[in-house]
Structures are given as C-alpha cells and as structure tokens.
Amino acid sequence: MKEIYVSDLAAYEEGKLFDSYFLVLARQFRTTQTNKPYLHLILCDKTGQLEGRAWEPADPRIGKDIERGDVVKVRGCVQRFNDRLQMKLEQLRKAYPQEIDKGEYMPATTYDVAALWNQLLGFVESFSDPHLKMLLTSILEDPKIAGAYREAPAAKQLHHAWLGGLLEHVISLLTLADRVAPHYPILHRDLLLTGVILHDIGKVRELAWDIGFEYTIEGVLLGHIQIGAGLAERAMDSLPAFPSRLKTLVLHMILSHHGKLEFGSPKLPMIPESLMLSFLDDLDAKMMAMQMEFDKGAREGRPADELSGKVWALDQRQLLNTRAWLGEEKEQEISQ
Amino acid sequence: MKEIYVSDLAAYEEGKLFDSYFLVLARQFRTTQTNKPYLHLILCDKTGQLEGRAWEPADPRIGKDIERGDVVKVRGCVQRFNDRLQMKLEQLRKAYPQEIDKGEYMPATTYDVAALWNQLLGFVESFSDPHLKMLLTSILEDPKIAGAYREAPAAKQLHHAWLGGLLEHVISLLTLADRVAPHYPILHRDLLLTGVILHDIGKVRELAWDIGFEYTIEGVLLGHIQIGAGLAERAMDSLPAFPSRLKTLVLHMILSHHGKLEFGSPKLPMIPESLMLSFLDDLDAKMMAMQMEFDKGAREGRPADELSGKVWALDQRQLLNTRAWLGEEKEQEISQ
Amino acid sequence: MKEIYVSDLAAYEEGKLFDSYFLVLARQFRTTQTNKPYLHLILCDKTGQLEGRAWEPADPRIGKDIERGDVVKVRGCVQRFNDRLQMKLEQLRKAYPQEIDKGEYMPATTYDVAALWNQLLGFVESFSDPHLKMLLTSILEDPKIAGAYREAPAAKQLHHAWLGGLLEHVISLLTLADRVAPHYPILHRDLLLTGVILHDIGKVRELAWDIGFEYTIEGVLLGHIQIGAGLAERAMDSLPAFPSRLKTLVLHMILSHHGKLEFGSPKLPMIPESLMLSFLDDLDAKMMAMQMEFDKGAREGRPADELSGKVWALDQRQLLNTRAWLGEEKEQEISQ
Amino acid sequence: MKEIYVSDLAAYEEGKLFDSYFLVLARQFRTTQTNKPYLHLILCDKTGQLEGRAWEPADPRIGKDIERGDVVKVRGCVQRFNDRLQMKLEQLRKAYPQEIDKGEYMPATTYDVAALWNQLLGFVESFSDPHLKMLLTSILEDPKIAGAYREAPAAKQLHHAWLGGLLEHVISLLTLADRVAPHYPILHRDLLLTGVILHDIGKVRELAWDIGFEYTIEGVLLGHIQIGAGLAERAMDSLPAFPSRLKTLVLHMILSHHGKLEFGSPKLPMIPESLMLSFLDDLDAKMMAMQMEFDKGAREGRPADELSGKVWALDQRQLLNTRAWLGEEKEQEISQ
Amino acid sequence: MKEIYVSDLAAYEEGKLFDSYFLVLARQFRTTQTNKPYLHLILCDKTGQLEGRAWEPADPRIGKDIERGDVVKVRGCVQRFNDRLQMKLEQLRKAYPQEIDKGEYMPATTYDVAALWNQLLGFVESFSDPHLKMLLTSILEDPKIAGAYREAPAAKQLHHAWLGGLLEHVISLLTLADRVAPHYPILHRDLLLTGVILHDIGKVRELAWDIGFEYTIEGVLLGHIQIGAGLAERAMDSLPAFPSRLKTLVLHMILSHHGKLEFGSPKLPMIPESLMLSFLDDLDAKMMAMQMEFDKGAREGRPADELSGKVWALDQRQLLNTRAWLGEEKEQEISQ
Amino acid sequence: MKEIYVSDLAAYEEGKLFDSYFLVLARQFRTTQTNKPYLHLILCDKTGQLEGRAWEPADPRIGKDIERGDVVKVRGCVQRFNDRLQMKLEQLRKAYPQEIDKGEYMPATTYDVAALWNQLLGFVESFSDPHLKMLLTSILEDPKIAGAYREAPAAKQLHHAWLGGLLEHVISLLTLADRVAPHYPILHRDLLLTGVILHDIGKVRELAWDIGFEYTIEGVLLGHIQIGAGLAERAMDSLPAFPSRLKTLVLHMILSHHGKLEFGSPKLPMIPESLMLSFLDDLDAKMMAMQMEFDKGAREGRPADELSGKVWALDQRQLLNTRAWLGEEKEQEISQ
C-alpha cells in the first residue's frame, strides 16, 4: 500500500502535497520561540527517517491519539531548512491494521530469511557430534529464540544493522568457517560452527528492534556475551547427557569471541576453535566495512581514483578500491 | 599427632633422624645422571613444602602404593644442597585414617570459620529487601555451595591464599562496605552487600584446593566472573518471584567488579553499587598487600628505616611503613 | 535587592522589559556584518550566564565606564536566536556599592561555610599528634590562607565548581576517611586526615574566582600539587620542632594524591595513608559525578527506565540510577 | 655417513666413546678457574646443538685449524653436569669434503622442496593478470633469488625456523588464501596471491643461514619489509610495461602486511587485498604456534587434561588441545 | 598584476564591486533548494581561500570553459552569510597567460630559494666523504628531483606548509645539526647531514602542489619514508663504487627518522646519526610549532599575560611566550 | 698507599696472599649450612666491589670493631666459586686515618672538579639577567649546596654514576644548550641555562654517596624534581626583589624537565626554554648511553661488524657503531 518512501522525498518539490505511511519513532509537543505550538514527530520507514511538524495540532484532522510505535497515514509536503529536509504535515491519523505491512518500516535483509534459516539448519544437520547437534536443535527449535534469531539485527549502527542482519552475518561466517576449517586438521569443525551460531545469540536480548533499533538496559548492563553465555548455559543444563567438558568449551567460545579483554571478552581464546572464531568474526566485519565504504563511494559518485574519507570502523584509515582504481571494475562484473 | 612441621626443619642438623606426617603433592620415579633410581616426592603441610628423595625405592620399607594426595608417615633426615633444604627418606608409608587431621596439611585462616559464617548470615539477616535476602539465603543454604564457600581460598597465590580465605575476604569487605555505605545515600545497601557476597563466588569452582591450590581447567577457560554469574543466574531463575530488573543488577554487580575491561570485567560499573564494589575490592586488596609486605619485613628483621623491595602486587613500587619509620609502632600496639 | 536571576529568564516572553543586576564577565565592542556597532557583554549571576547586547552603545543611557568585574544594573528584555537566549539591553549602568550583595553573582555552596569551617577545626582538634595539629593550626589560622580556603571552588568545571566547593569537598572526604580509617589499624589517622586537609590546598592559587572561575598562569605552569607542596613545606619550615621525617611524609601525601604518574602525581603512593587518600579522593569524585548526573536527569525529566548519556567524567560510560529504575525512590526518601 | 645425531645423545651412557660429524657454530679457547686450558665448541646438526670440550687442546689428535663453519669429525663421549649434557672430545679433525652431506647439519623442512616449488610456480601459472604473472616469473626465475627462496627459513626462532621454512609458509598461505578469496568477490585474487608470495621475500637477505640462523646487520638495520620492497621495486622497474598503479599496490601489500604500525609496518592495510593478507599471515602464524605447542605437549607426555604452560608467541596465554581433552584424538586420526 | 588578495576581502563592504585574479581549486554546478542553478567555485591565492558563487551561470559573461587549476579573472563583491565570507561573482573568465604570476596563487617561502639552494650545495661541498658527496651531487643534479625539491612544501597543513617549505626545513636542520655535531665526536658528520638532506625527500612524490597541496594516492599508500628510501636506493645502485655498508646506513637513516614504530618508522634509530636526526627533526618541528602559535597570538592581539589555547601539534598543551610574559619583548628585538 | 684494586684481582692466582685497603659497604655474621660461622663483607674501591669472607671470625687478627663505612686493611687471597670471584680474608683491621685517601674508594669523574666548577661559574657570570644571576650565585655560594653539587653523582646506576657526575652532566648540557640556543631567537638564554643548572639539583638530597650510592628515603618518597623545586623556591623567596613571574618560570623549568607526565614530571613543558631543556636532557642521556655501550663493546673486544646486545637504556634496541663498522675509526682518531 505504501508507495512513497523517505528516500524518495529528497527529490520532491517544496509545497507539493503527497500521502504516505510512516512509523512514529518519537512524538513531542513543542513551542516555537514565538510561542506557537506544534507537534514534532520523527517518522521513518525502511529507507530512512525524517522530521515532521504539524503546525496546527489543534486541527481536528490531526490525530490526537498517536504514540511512539504507531504507523500513521500522513498528508503533507516537504520543506527545506538550512539544507535539511522536513515534512510539513497537514493531516495525520493512525493507520488501520489492514493498511500496515510491517516489513515496510524498518530496514531488512535483502536475502530470503526462510532460505537463510534453512541454510543454518543444514549446517546443524551436517554435524557429526550428537551433543552439539542436539544442543543447537533444541535452541533453534525454541520458537521464542528462533523467532528473534530470524529478526534480530546484528548491530545498532555498524555492520548488518537491519532486520535479519544477525542471521545474514552468521550464514556468512558459517560459509567462511567451512572453507577455512579443512586447512587446519587440528580444528573440531562442529565446535567451531557451534561457536559461530551461538557467538552473537545474546543480541536477541541486547538489542530491541520493534520500533527502530535500540540497546536494551539489560543489554547495556550485561552485554550480549554474558546474555548469550547464560542462554547457552541453560540450554545445555536442560540436556541431561550433555558432557560437562563440552559445555565448558561452548561457553568459552562465546566468552572469548571478541579476542581481547579490552574488547569486552573476559577471556582470551585458548583453544584452536575460539582463536579461529575470533579471527573470522573480526575479518568478516572489516571486509564488510570495506565493501560498505566502497558501495557508499559508488553511490555518491566518488571517482575511482580517489581515496575514501577516514573510515571510523577501520581505525580512521582511508581506503582505496583496488579494482576501481585499476579500472578493472567492468571485467570483474562480467567475469562473475 | 603431627609434631614436626616443614617450617621447623630449617633448624635441623643434617643427618639427624625424625618422624613426621606430610601430604604428597607430587610423586615421580627418577634416575640420577649416573643411572641410580630414586623416588622423588613433593611433600607439604600447612607451613610450607619441601622435596624428599628416597634413594632405595626398592627397599620394602618404602611404600609402593603412594599417590598424589595421600598423607604419608616418613622417617628421614634433612640434607642441604646448594643452600636448598631437602629430606632424605629412610622409610615411608601411607598414614592410617585415624592418624590424619586434615587441617594440618594446608594453610588455613586463623579466624574461627563458624564465627565468620555467622557474621555472613547476620549481614544477610539485616537486609530489608526481601528478594535479595531470599536469594542469598537460598544460595548459602545450598549445602554444596555453603561447604565450598567456607573452605575456598580467595586466590592461588596473592592475597588470602589459604583455606577459608574467600570467606575472610568477604567478611572484611562487608564490614568496610557497611562503614562506607551510609556516607552515600544514593547507595542501595542491600544490593551493595549482595554484590560483596556474590562477587567472587565463582572461585568455588575456579580453584581446586583438595591437594594444594590449583586453577581448574573450567576456571582457566571461563573465569570466576562467568562461573559466578552463571551460578547466580540459576539461583535467581529458581526463585519464581525474583524481579527481572533486580536480576539484571545482581548480574551486573558480578560482571563489573574488576572495574576495567582489561582486568577481565566484560562491563564497566554503571550503577553506584557496582562502582563502589569495584573500588572497595581493589582498595582492600592493596591495603592487604601493604600489610603483608610490612609483616614480611618485620619477620625478616628489615629495619624500620628501610623501604621494602619492589612489590609485585603494587606495580613494582617500594613501600614504607609509616608508623615504624616514625618510631610509633609501640604506642600503637598499646593504644589499641 | 536582586530579584531576577539568569535561570528565571528562560521562561520570559520576548520583548517584555525587566530590571536586574548582573556581574560582567567580559565586555567588547563589536560590529555586525552590516557594520552596525554594538556592545557585547557576558553577564552572570550565581545561577548561570547569558550574553547581552546593547544596540545603541552611543546612547547616553548606556554606561561607558563599565569593565570586566563590575556589577551592573540593566534594563532589557530577552530575545531568542536559533533557540539560544540573549538579552537585549536598553539601559545599563554600574551598580552602586550599596546595591551589591557579592554572594548573588557566583555559584556558591548551599552549606553554611562557618559550620563547615568549624567541622574542619573540630577534626584538627581531635588529632593526637601534636606536630600535625600545630601544623594545621598554623596554616588554618593564617588569615590569607583561611580566607581563600573558605572561598575557593574545588575545580573550574567538574565537581564542586562553586564558591566554598573546596571546603565542602574536604569535609566530605574527612568524614569518609574517618569512617574507613578504623577498618585498617595500619593507618596513621592524623597523617591521613592531614593529607585530606592539605591535598588540594594548592587550589587556592591554582584557581582565581574573583570574576568567574579561571586557572591562573601560575596554576597552569605549576599545578596545585606543586603549589600546595611549596605552601606546606614553608609552613613546616617555620615550625622549628617539626620532625623532618614527618615533613617528608606530609609532602609525599600531597605529591602522590592523584595516584598515578599520568594523572600528574610525580610519585606513586608508597605509604598506607597516601594509598588510602588517593583511593578516597577518586572514589568520592566519581560518586559525586554519578549523583550529579542523576540529579541532572531528574531535573530534565529523564524517565527512570532510561540510561544516562555518555558521562565524560566517567570514561564516557552510561549510568543507571538503581533506585529509580527499581521504583524505590520514594520509599528511600521516606525511610531516611 | 653421519649416523649419530645430537638428539640421540641424551640417551647415551656417560663415558662410552662414539664417533660422529657435527657443524661448528662457535669455537673458543678457554681456561678453567684452576687455569687448565681447554677448547670450547658449540656443535650442531639438524636435530639440535650441544657444547663440546676438548681438555687437552695441545694433543696432536686435536685439530688446530678448525673454524666456525667447519664440519668436523669427533671421537668423544657424553658427560652430564648439573643435568646438562656436554660432549667430552678425545679426538677432533676437519671432515673431508666427501664426508659432508650438507643437509645433515641444519634443520630443514620435511616437505619435498622441489614439489613445494612446483606448487608455487603452479599458483603463478594460474594468474590471469599478465603483469603480475610476468613480475613473479621474472623474480622466481632469477637464480640468485630462487635459490635463496628455496633455502631460507621463515624466522630465526619462532614459526618455520628451518631451511625451506619460508617456502613452506608461503605455500600454506597460498592454499589458505585461495580458499578464502572466493568468499569475497571484492578481492583481486592475483594481487592477493602476489602479496602472499612477496610479503616475506626480504627474509632472503634479513637472515643468514649458512652456519646456523642469524640476522644480518642489513636485516637488523632495514628489516625484511624494506629489503623486500626494494627488491620488488627494482624487479618492477625492470619491466618496462609494468603499470605504475599496480606497482604502488604491490609495494603497499609488502609494506602493510604486518597490519599495524607498532608491528613495524609503516602503513596500515588500505585495500582489501592487504587487509586480507595481514589477517591470514597472523592467523596462520598463531594456528601454527598452537599446533607446535600441542605437538610439544604430546612429545613431553603432558596429559590431555592439562593446560599448556604460558605460550610466549600467544601473549603468554595457556592453551588447551580441544580434541585431546574431549578424548576424541583417536577417532579423529581414524576419520581423516 | 594582482592587487587584491583573499586576506584583504574580510574588510570589504558588502556589495562593493572589485576585480581580481584567483586560482580555481574546485568547480561544481549546483542547485539551490528552490532549484535555482548556480556555479560554485573554490578560489584561492597565496593568502588563503574563499568560496565564490555565480548566480547566473548561463550569462555569457560567465566563462564556460573554466576548470580546476585555471587562474581566472573575476568581477564581483563580498557577501556575508552566517558570519562566513563569500564572493558573489558577476563576471568570470580565464586569465591570459601574460596576466599570470604563478607565485601569487600559493603560499611560498619568504626566503630566496636560490640562496637556500646554494646553502644546500655548500653543505654538500663541505663533505669529506667522497661517496656521500657523490651520492648527493648526483641526486641534486637530477633536474627532475632538484626542481621538485626546490618547490615542495614540507607538509600539507602543519609546519612549513608552503612552496619551498621542504628546502627551508632542511636548511634549518642542517644548520642546527652542524651546531650540535661537534659536541659528540662519535658522530659521522657527513652521514648525519646526508640523513638531514634525504630524510624527507620522498615528499616530492608524497605531496602534489600544482593546484593547492594534496597527498597523492601513492603518498597515502606508501608514505614518504618508503618513497624516499626507494629513490635513494636507486641513486646508490647507479653509483657502481658506492660501498654496500654505507648504503645500508643511508637507508637506515631515512627509515628510522620518525624515531618510533608508532610514528610510521619501520625501524628504531640504531646508530648515533639516526638517533640524532630523529631528535633534531622532532625538536625543530616543535620549536617551529611554538613560534607559529606565538606569531598567531601576536597577530590576533592576544595579551602577553595570557596562555595560548590548546595546541594540537603539541599534544593539546597550552603555551606561554616567556619573553612576552616577562615584558622583555622589546629589549629582545633591540638587542638582536 | 693503596696499590691493589678490585679490578686487578680478576687476574690473581687462587691462594696467593696480598695486602690492600677497601671500603666496607656491608658487614654480616653468617653461618654455613654445616653451622660454621663466618664474617661476610662487601668491600669496594673506586674500580668495583667484591665479596669477602673471614672463616675464623674469632681469630684475634680479625678486627671486631668493623662497621659499614670503615676503610679496612686486609690480608687475603682470591678464590673462585662457580666462576665468581671472592676474597678469603686472613687478617683484617680498620685503616688508620693517615692511611686513607678518600678518593680511592668510590668511582669519580676523570675531569678536574675545580675546572668544571669554574666553567659553571663562568656560565653564570655570562648572564645578562640580573635576577637569575643573583639567584644562581646565591645558590652556588651556599657552601652546603656547593659542596654537595661538586660531589654528587648524577644517578645511582645509569649515566654519570660517579662522584662529580652531576657537575659533569650539567657542564655537558650547558655547552650543548649554548650551541643550540642561538639557532632559536625565541629562547631566553639565561632562563634556559638556569634550568640546566637547577634541573637536577634535587639529586643532592635524592641520593646519598658517603658509602656507595643509594637513594635516600626522602628521595624515594619525594623525588629530585620536588626536592629541587623546594630548594629553588626557598632560594628565590630569600631574594626580596626576585620577580614573581620569573619565579614561576624557574619552578616550571624544574618541574617539567622530564618532558612527560609518565616520566614523573607533573607538568608538560609549556614554554620554549622548558621544551628545549627536556629535549637536550633526553638527547644527551641517550647519546651518552650509546657512547658507553660502544666503549663497553671495545673493552670486551666485540668485533666492529657486530651489533651490540639489547640495550636497556635505549628500549632494548641493538646498536651499531657507525665509524667502527665503516672501518673509519682510525682516521677519526687522527683527524681529531
């Protein structure tokens, strides 16, 4: 039903009316410096967010009962103020349930979640260790966890900050781990993959994503490492035959996956599988950060022979897109 | 029954025979460079440890069935080799159960454990928060935990490295916290004291103390912070009415009590009670380290007007005993 | 005489005239981009500061002889520019001496300074060491030092940044130290309290507070540790019988109270009293920073179930008000 | 011809004579405290090194003309002194050229060097970028470089410290890189593999391995990064058609492969290929360090349920062999 | 020909027309929020840079063929917008070659470049080591290098960021090194001076200064240390008799001149000459930063008894001008 | 009178009797493991120190009244034990006053102290600032300070650790500062030289050198920076006309001369003179450390083409003697 997105509005003429639906992230009554009252909203959909102002909040066409978290139907136009876009709202009401397609209001993975989920189950299916297979099956069959695992973003802002991002991140790491593991016969493949699947599972409670992406207070006070370890510990405790040594190793994988104490892991990796997990997690995040920076450069039309700006996620270093600089971009796309 | 201790043997003449009992910390068959076989033992009691050698291990008076962890009766004499004391063992057998007083073989608190335990229960009794009182009661009434809590050392080597050391450390911190808490009305006293009682509880599994003091593998891979948090989490989960917010705070107290990420706390203190706990724990450990260094100086006859050597537990700094240097030591003892 | 304060003006309507008195922190003649001249002032009272502009500086009703440090009487109104409040000044003259109550123009402790001072003297009175008692008496009886000690803020911006703040900070630490000292028999109480009283005394020259709070150049080049040590050294030199060992210890207390070289202490604490002082000073500052952040949250109406923003004085961490989050705020106030 | 190795001598009886050949690493005339002259040698073969002493250096059977770097034939016996093994030399002469098999005197890879070299050439053959293929071909066809590349150890002491170690390390990384590269379409495979092949090429001059493994002075003053960059730069300069942009990227791969300034890389990785190279090089070294520690534990008979000691190459952490601890060692060996 | 400079325009009345010449640093067509097209330029001369806007880009008087790097003649006036100065351009055309004095458009040294160059050659002439003299002669006679060396700035922004800045910096260091060298007989004067002359020579390719000052991509990926070492290595390779030990030392001087790994030097100084070079380079840069801060203070009319603001190039410390604060400025100027 | 030095004894035959004089650094009665009593001494002269044992302490020829700090006459011989040299003492008595030449017993500068002192006074004489000249005159004329200044070592162990070392170090720095100062007109020469003369003056009380070199307790608790600042402050206070601004600057020079907080300077250098002082002090110490390492290498016969070992005073780096490696040593000696 929704046809006009936040990302479309940059191109709109000032003053031209349009109708659309948005999610309300925040809502406040305010007064101008000259004491004129107005309703101030932060509205979003999956493409971004925008401020909106209703200058006649007493107008009967301006819905009074709107709250943070509602989807609303608005009629309004865009305005520009100091180069910043705003919406001026003429009319405003809560959307009817049948008008709401929840997927329209927050950024989401572009992959098919059901397919990713099946890939995940497939990896578990491939395990030869019966205890680890049973542990993961019991966790992934828990409808509360499974539902959250499929929806959760992997982060609030950095990499994979979208619905389904956690699952997408885990599938990428599983595939990568499966490529690398055979190179090192010392590695216990099932334990490594178990670590990949569970390392960030605490994020299902560290983050809240019903209305935008936020850290929960539990998340800030405990962190996803501790939440995930607690969750895994309870799951293992409920499997009577789960070997206690294996339990210690699974918890150690979760605890040590950030690789260094100063990154919030209370333990350094001390087994081959946790060393590998911490490397792959870091490597994948940094490669993803590079890719995102290059995509952004391409979107913004940065010429191929320019360096990026200083990238926060990579210690403020500048980046160069090798293929673009060498002029091999096209060949590459063709050859793939 | 035991009358001669490791600490006594330094004064013994070489060659003079004596009988005594010791705990076997390690046992190995070895050969000299000239291929002479001998039995090599590490023996200890609560005052220290010593090497022993039996040069005729085939002699029928040398017990064959001795293992790590046994208490043995020995007949032998001391020898000195390169200024190091050793025992030469003539005879050796397992002690009979009725000969063994377990308290003789490992260092232990000089306080009355039952009295310390009653102090601990008294603090819990004084709580006004019913949930925290019930939580601690349920943990301290669990006979497995309570037994371990009463016995556990607080560390393998540094401060309070003796049986009962954990309990002694906690009582000291409880008393200190109770002095400081009223100075800051912002503090939730019961939560602070709960943190004190539970912050190191993971040490009951991080350390093993049946035969000497050792870290367990679980302890090395997970650490007492994680073990303690898991233990507390399960205890709270088993109390149906325990408020979830309070649970988060109790876990946060345990997680953050080392105060800094690089000290192995995965979270910084973010509430007044955890900030206070991390300060008091650090302060008490450092004051204890100073006290121990001064005691050692006094034992070794270091003159009052000399600085200590570089103290490892205090960043290699040297220390000075104020009162001794000012010549006020005696007055102090009298006035107390 | 002063009835309208800076903190009141936020609620004023634009354009409505009022009369009041303020202290001049800065004064400059400026020109607009269109070359219109105006007089630019920074005005303050104990509740905050505000910019003021007089658009007709040549108007005879605008006093010409005004300087930094004067208290002025103004007639004007408020204006809002980009959400920032300013004063538009119609008339302006120096206040008459009889109109000025100095206490109105800079933030000051809410405690009774005379009472705090008596508490301080009471602590000194309680000393049993005659030399330290005489030292502090001689310093606190010096009218120049005593006057400054009563007035000085404890900092330019962070904790206790108000007149009387130094004294308030010292009394809080004395009370705290007196609670903690008996827990450690090793501590020389009088030396500890002497350290508390003298540790920040250099701030009477590091800061200037006659017109706003500023660092002096002496303060920036030498620092309050050095200034305080010099002041204490001269005071001890002037007491012929003061023991030289005690002098070394008193100076060491001042030098080492920041606890670490990188915090500007040229020496680490090496005696029990200086270790304790450095801990308590740091602990008290951090607890105060927490309290101030919670007070600010309450003033700004932050809901109890929200974390604070990142707090600069606590390493950018976020904070949570335990009692508020647990909904125990009211009980607490009643029960106290 | 050589039949008795250093590693065999530990089991020898004292005093029993044997004949063998060794390489002389050092040679000095010394005097005992009682002024008895002797000849002191450090002798080695591919299994280790040992001290030797000739007590009658004037004896005509003791060769006078021996120098560092000679292979010698000795007749002697072992002695044990303070648990340390030594050789007592009765006779000693230079070996005849026909007695010397150079491969016997320094540790060397257990792989077939010719096969590794063919693998290396095979990787180059697989390149699609003509410039990089030509660059590597020209370097690897240079007989001076190729000879050194085949022989060089990868380090003096840590990982791959044996003849052929550099080549072995590069082949392992090439295989690993080839597994990982397809996971990231952004990567320029040929450039990545070029970086792998050239990143440590400076070690052919940083190390000397004719008589034991030593750093050269050039190596200490310039380092293998700089030496390798210089070598690569000259090779590219000598290819007239080599694109200048590609040259910059190849040099950047070498310069940044340590990943951090403080590890001696003058530049951080700024392209995807150098980021990947720095991760894989570090990961492979750490996995190798784990494997070596486990092998050492197995050789020394450390029980499976014990942690290793603190491992220098892994920040002093202790390690646990997952499979051994879980008791899966055998299954693993069978299943592979 | 140019009479009006960027630095003059701050004082200009809005709207008053003037004619002048500027260099175009950037050029873009843009649209206002209300879709009004305009031409946006960044214009500069040796005194600074300024934005310019042409509001009628279709006007035939607005040159269409203008590119980044052109010098243009403009007619326009200044405007102020939010306190920021802009130029409004009425007319605009490329300057004719005969109108352009290249020296007017970028900041340049105030010294006579020819004189500085002769000083440099004079230092080389004074060498007694024939190889180093020949090396420097061959480098400085290479017209491509010599030309760039004379023009290059020493940095993009910090010290000596002007045309000729590199040469000026080197002459200052040569003079200083020549003063210090005789104090340490251990120093090899010619090697030290060679290091001074070559340490920053890589900046001739790290920076580009034809149109403003920019880092080249080669500069960002390789850095001036590596570029300079490569350049010096090729120069030494082309001198057949150049001793290989001396070559290693010259390269080591360049590699280690930043003094610490974390400052981008892949090697620490290990010979007296490189230690001295790294100290003098750092000292001279910091003294220059102090001088520049004091000059800025004087230009801005900062009173002598005020500290500077926090200076970025000196770890955010504040500075005080000794002579100014002591009131000795005038005497000094007279006495010199 | 003394003819045989510690440094001579290494070459002595065991058992051969000799007579000589030494200073007693320590004296203890001890017992062997077999309960044999002996007298243990640490004896020294200006060339080093050595242990001595008297095996028949009850023998009437063994002086009973010997104390730490006495010079003694001994008759004995050398013994070697585990490669360590000892003296076996047959006879032992206090030396008669007329036998003692104090200069024989501690290492001392090889320069003429009176000449160095005159150089120092000459520098002061050259000042044009009357206040600084008077300050230094008053300090250097104080017989207690002047005496100590002439005798004090500059350190306990590192650079200039000999009697007169402080003076030697200061003269070297004065000469260096005087070479550098004219290069920077911004520098206040007299203030810089004042800083050089006073920066380490606290060492006259930080160290004790009557019997060996030791830190005093005052030195350890306060440090030479604080002691020196206190000393300078009192000297300036006693000059009624000394300008207060100049006093602040002089104190700042002393406080900041270590250059960084973590090196124990409570303030960073903030004026040109203190920046210069901190650089020169560090540079001179490091050049001296290089020189000492090369001298040691020469004494120990290290070949010119070897690097030094890892040098503690230079961050564990290895060093290379440029001239020796280039084979220019001789030329240099001739040309100087």
Observed structural traits:
homohexamer, 336 residues, alpha+beta, five-stranded mixed barrel, two-stranded antiparallel ribbon, 12 helices, 7 strands, 42% helix, globular, disordered C terminus
Explain what you see.
Six copies of one chain form a homohexamer. With 336 residues, chain A is α+β, with helices and mostly antiparallel strands. Chain A contains twelve helices and seven strands. Chain A has helices spanning 6-9, 113-125, 130-141, 143-151, 165-180, 189-198, 203-206, 217-237, 244-255, 272-299, 322-326, 329-335; strands at residues 18-31, 37-45, 48-54, 71-81, 84-94, 207-208, 214-215. Chain A has a five-stranded mixed beta barrel with strand order 1-2-3-5-4. The longest helix of chain A has 28 residues, at 272-299. The first copy, chain A, is globular and about 70 Å long. Chains in contact: A-B, A-C, A-D, A-E, B-C, B-D, B-F, C-E, C-F, D-E, D-F, E-F. At the A-D interface, helix 5, helix 9, helix 10 and helix 11 of A face helix 5, helix 9, helix 10 and helix 11 of D.
